[in-house]
User: Which sequence fits this backbone?
């Protein structure tokens, strides 16, 4: 396929697209819904971008969020003011590259963007469903997507991707149709709404249903509509989509008009005008009953309620997962994405995760796609990140070879502080090990994804509690011991999650260092101001205290030229009889401000 | 005064109290309001607890929050189900100890708890004000409090205290009546609502004003009232008062009734019932116009808008301040309390601050008073914390004496990592220094408050940016250097905030340590697993790199028996010609996961 010369970053990559509609071929009794209702006829509005390969194996399905629709990218007419809602992500050379992938998005069931929903005509009455529209679930939405794709002749998806409610649909795809999805990307989502998000949703929905214009849901064709209620619900929702920092930066407490001195006037603050504008804009393009139907589905979505645990929910999953958390998202806080990753790990699935530093809050997946598109591009199978990774420095290979020699053949390995994945690549090459890397740095995580390995973005100092007991054959900690906050806790955690550990560190007991402190009175820091040096004796002392056996320890001349003479020790460790386990979490300890 | 035998912890300390009302003696033209309105008559509903001293110098005035009232403690009748809203805080032996203090609280202007507000009778019409009630400000509220207290014969307050909107009133007291307040305690508040809090408030107020029952504010005596709007506003507000963790713990996603399968039904989730209950409860006891009047005052309150900066706002303050932040408060996030403390510090005022670990969110100042009452009790002048502090260990005094000798006489000193204040006490005693301590631990902060010094609860590793440039003559860092994350940044910060610094640390270059590493190959840790040891040479190297002059360095035999032979170095430092300043913030650096 041709890259068409341009990289599409000018936003004109997709060009004009045609919205389409398909009527699902249903049995005579129609579509039976999860909560007992039935729909005699289901239409699906959709768009596609890029070309379906002859093998029909390059489709990326996009699941849209609450008030989204099928118009993801491009324009419906050349003079359209705005392109589709994720135009920055989808197109030639973009995160989801239409030079390689066939991209499909359909409006969700219960919506008002062309797919059957409460404002659609009820075939039996010839009038809009209104209050007669049966309740739908996220499972129903995804079932309709599956039937629709089958009708297009697409049996398998290269990937399914979505944020927020779209992420819940991604979860459903992975659970209900495990054989039809290769990769899943779940962004800023969760296995259910948090109680706080649920509370806002319930209060917002009450505003629609308390609006006299709602008329029990049968307002179509009447003079009054629940416009106030819908706008109000949107305003509450919109606050939850933005981070407090972003609100401060974008609006602060700026006022629109000078004070007049009389009572509370509307539009006093810019934030007020903005929210009213958002409310009005939604009323122009959205249906209140659709808002109720979809938020109701979202409120009820709860994998833990249905399956008991997330581990059980994900038991049948076969897809590789990329879970993306957004740092400033408080509607779906990063912890909910981490819980998804943890559930998948406990279920023994392949999962990667990123925690994007995204100041815009929940809406960052729509507004702030720069790093997100790099991560998605690296995770998708057919085309790598732009630029590509660096080859491993030759100087590092010596130490890595020693580590590799200690890693069990064909084992499952976790590399704590994995950098750009050089060691994981070597372990795969030399020992046939399947590996996952843990690293604090997003660039490193993207580099590891790009090389086809799994990577979990995380801070070792914040603990490894989300990695399950005994999930790995071997945990590697290369060069990272002196810079963690609680070396004792990290070693304990390594041996909780893995049968064995391999630890490499610069030996500060080597003779050159002994001279440094013994004669010169200087403790060698090697440029790491805050690192705590370890000697062979320190390490064995620490292991003894923790009930850890040192199975093997070898010495290796170090690599980097900046570390003249730095010798590394590489130790293989396992739980001893007196292994202390990990009662204390490896979270950052409260610093004792004064020594006794 | 008698402690009455009991400590009042059974909640029965105050007993039956009598609500009272006072009519302000106003000039014939009535009370002129800040935004131009005028009230011909102002009644003030209030309660008092404890006895006013003969010197009239023991009054603690409590400012209540949005929907609070004057009924702080005790019961109006012996069989009242519930006591006043802060009964746990106020009473014999409690945080605000009525054995020592005379406690007063009045309902705020614009409220509906007995003080003049929108539901009061307009003297000119004989009917409730309704839409004719003039807009009031927080400044007006406090002005009424001042006039009211004058009429009670109380010219000076030992302290004024309040949380949330009550905290804004405390700020007003400190600015507008600087000569009338000795101490100010401002809890979970800020100099203005954040844009996010403002946004929720604006949306909630819109619900009241859009309720057909509101009738432009003139609903008194009519059939319909804006009950739905008020309840709805309260529900939005109530979500913002609770932390997400607390909502999860208290309600989770539990459902009340089994699913019935038909559409969105009310009361599906426990959280929904709870919020509806909170809405209903407020409607029973509160007036919608009062809610609008008070939230409008809160929305508009903005010290930075009025004065330009907080430093300028606090220029006239004479009271000592205690600012209390609640960790899980997201309506008034801890950063807003820190900004108040910073503004007071920049204005050169005496300020202490605590950051309470309070899981309940904003409402923690009402619900979770245990630590809060200890801090308040320690800060108030007349009676100390229960138990009292320990006398300084004799063994520590040697090192402290050496430090004291390096601190300028009569200087302003900040002790970073101040512990329980022993060193501050010694510096005051030996050198006449006025000191403020910084410590991460609340108990230490309370101990320092209890000894009459100022204390700022904070983590040195998170930076000292809130301490102003050159605010101190001397910054002391005793025993803390090896446990900070970025020693270089901390030293730079010390010399940004102070003219000179004094640093004491265990000398790991002492011969006993040289033997430890030189012969035994062990780096001595002294029980601090994560501490980075410094030698004399390390320290002087570091200072040279940072452009810091070492003016003086002395050796002192250490104290504690656990540190056999541990010798301390005590260095006096100042900015050198090449002082690097503090471009890099001392925040925790991103750990490089792999050495080069």
Assistant:
């Amino acid at each position: 396929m041709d890259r068409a010369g341009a990289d599409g970053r000018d936003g004109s990559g997709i060009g004009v697209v045609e919205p389409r509609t398909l009527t699902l071929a249903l049995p005579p009794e129609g579509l039976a819904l999860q909560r007992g209702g039935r729909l005699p006829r289901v239409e699906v509005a959709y768009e596609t971008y890029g070309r379906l390969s002859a093998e029909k194996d390059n489709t990326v399905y996009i699941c849209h969020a609450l008030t989204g629709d099928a118009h993801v990218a491009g324009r419906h007419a050349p003079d359209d003011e705005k392109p589709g809602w994720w135009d920055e992500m989808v197109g030639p050379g973009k995160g989801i590259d239409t030079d390689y992938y066939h991209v499909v998005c359909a409006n969700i069931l219960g919506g008002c963007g062309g797919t059957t929903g409460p404002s659609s005509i009820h075939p039996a009455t010839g009038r809009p469903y209104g209050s007669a529209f049966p309740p739908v679930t996220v499972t129903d939405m995804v079932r309709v997507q599956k039937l629709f794709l089958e009708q297009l002749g697409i049996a398998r998806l290269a990937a399914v991707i979505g944020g927020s409610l779209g992420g819940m649909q991604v979860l459903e795809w992975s659970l209900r149709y495990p054989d039809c999805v290769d990769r899943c990307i779940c962004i800023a989502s969760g296995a259910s709404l948090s109680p706080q998000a649920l509370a806002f949703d319930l209060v917002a929905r009450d505003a629609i249903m308390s609006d006299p214009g709602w008329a029990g849901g049968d307002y179509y064709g009447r003079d009054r509509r629940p416009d106030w209620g819908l706008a109000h619900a949107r305003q509450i929702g919109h606050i939850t989509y933005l981070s407090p920092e972003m609100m401060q930066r974008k609006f602060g407490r700026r006022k629109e008009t000078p004070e007049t001195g009389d009572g509370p006037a509307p539009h006093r603050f810019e934030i007020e005008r903005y929210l009213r504008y958002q409310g009005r804009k939604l009323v122009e393009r959205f249906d209140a009953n659709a808002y109720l139907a979809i938020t109701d589905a979202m409120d009820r979505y709860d994998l833990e309620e249905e399956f008991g645990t997330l581990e059980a929910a994900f038991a049948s999953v076969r897809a590789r997962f990329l879970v993306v958390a957004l740092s400033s998202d408080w509607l779906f806080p990063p912890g909910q994405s981490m819980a998804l990753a943890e559930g998948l790990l406990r279920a023994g699935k392949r999962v990667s995760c990123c925690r994007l530093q995204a100041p815009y809050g929940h809406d960052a997946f729509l507004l702030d796609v720069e790093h997100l598109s790099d991560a998605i591009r690296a995770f998708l199978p057919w085309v790598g990140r732009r630029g590509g990774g660096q080859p491993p420095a030759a100087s590092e290979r010596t130490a890595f070879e020693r580590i590799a020699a200690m890693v069990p053949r064909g084992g499952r390995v976790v590399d704590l502080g994995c950098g750009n994945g050089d060691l994981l690549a070597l372990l795969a090459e030399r020992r046939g090990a399947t590996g996952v890397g843990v690293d604090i740095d997003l660039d490193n995580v993207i580099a590891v994804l790009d090389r086809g390995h799994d990577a979990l973005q995380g801070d070792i100092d914040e603990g490894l509690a989300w990695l399950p007991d005994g999930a790995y054959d071997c945990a590697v900690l290369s060069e990272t011991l002196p810079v963690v906050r609680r070396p004792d806790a990290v070693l304990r955690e390594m041996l909780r999650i893995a049968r064995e550990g391999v630890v490499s560190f610069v030996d500060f007991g080597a003779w050159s260092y002994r001279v440094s402190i013994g004669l010169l009175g200087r403790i060698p820091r090697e440029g790491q101001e805050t690192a705590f040096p370890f000697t062979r004796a320190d390490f064995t002392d620490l292991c003894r205290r923790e009930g850890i056996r040192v199975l093997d320890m070898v010495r290796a001349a170090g690599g980097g030229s900046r570390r003249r003479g730095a010798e590394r020790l590489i130790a293989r460790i396992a739980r001893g009889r007196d292994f202390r386990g990990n009662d204390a979490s490896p979270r950052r300890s409260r610093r004792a401000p004064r020594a006794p």
